[in-house]
Amino acid sequence: MNNSITIYNKKIGKDHPPFIIAEMSGNHNQSLERALKIVEEAARAGVQALKIQTYTADTMTLNIDNKDDFFISDEKSLWKGNSLYKLYQQAYTPWEWHRPIFEKCKELDIIAFSTPFDSTAVDFLEELDVPCYKIASFENTDIPLIKKIAQTGKPMIISTGMATVAELDETVQIARQYGCNELVLLKCTSTYPASPENTNISTIPHMEKLFGCQVGLSDHTMGNGVAVGSVALGATVIEKHFTLSRADGGVDSTFSLEPHEMSQLVIETERVWKSLGEISYGPTDTEKSSLKYRRSLYISEDLKAGDVLTMDNIRAIRPGYGMPTKYLEIILGKKIKVDVEKGQPLNWDIVI
């Protein structure tokens, strides 16, 4: 397994802070001005990258709305009542917007890349010299698309939603066979929004071991808890949908983070990453000064040589400069060699 991979000028791996991707998707609401504002807010929140999606309604589906195959009727769907074609017309990012969005990202020192949904999108993105590619969950079994992207030789980030182990194995093998040497797999649940109960982030370390690559989470749950928790399980990449305000509406706004929430995601995932450390017992260097606050045995009354130690004249208290408390039962009933004052640490030198 690669210890880390590099996308443009940023490292992805366990020795580096989590790589946070803000997914714009259709949250620009067909306004380039809003799209550029989303870039600005993503950069301000501290993300490493911003991702868009490259398709048109015509490259995604057929313009048919009178057949069930092309109509969203699922009562639980956020997009119920739309034809696929009309949904993609609302959500797509105009291709002429890609360059200004990417230039704004470069200006603000965050990585810009995209999810292509067909070969024409890959050709277009190659003209813009994107540094990497994302494969959406619904395309992770599109082998011709995987081949074409792999042949660019650029890093690939693949969402694994709905894919079986066998399907993922085929996808990973094809990606590597056709030239992709830097690969990230993202655990993903392809419901919108997703529930924590159906997210199964315990899969993350298993997936890392199985495929020997960087792993992470494409998260559609509400809030940040699941994403933060995934870092403790080895996630080095986190992708969350991002909007200026959920109240503004939009095709993905319901399960998207707002700027202050994305900022917290960046902060909290880095805190978890820093806390992982290594297997460690005993005091750390920073804890050593606290050892003095352990309990130990102290003289609690003025005593004369020959006095007997009892529970009335010794106590287990802080600080920790006296005899360890585990010797309390052994020391009871023994005599003192010399005069001692209240507050003196008890030690073997003064006991007969």
Automatic annotation (TrEMBL):
It comes from the Bacteria. It is an enzyme of class 2 (transferase). GO terms for biological process: carbohydrate biosynthetic process. InterPro entries: AFP_Neu5c_C_sf (IPR036732), Aldolase_TIM (IPR013785), PseI-like (IPR051690), PseI/NeuA/B-like_N (IPR013132), Pseudaminic_synth_PseI (IPR020030), SAF (IPR013974), SAF_AFP_Neu5Ac (IPR006190), SAF_PseI/NeuA/NeuB (IPR057736). Its EC number is 2.5.1.97. Pfam families: NeuB, SAF. The keyword Transferase applies. SUPFAM superfamilies: AFP III-like domain, Aldolase. Keywords: Transferase. Residues 296-352 form the AFP-like domain. PROSITE patterns: AFP_LIKE. One of its GO terms (molecular function) is N-acylneuraminate-9-phosphate synthase activity. This is Pseudaminic acid synthase. It comes from Paenibacillus thalictri.
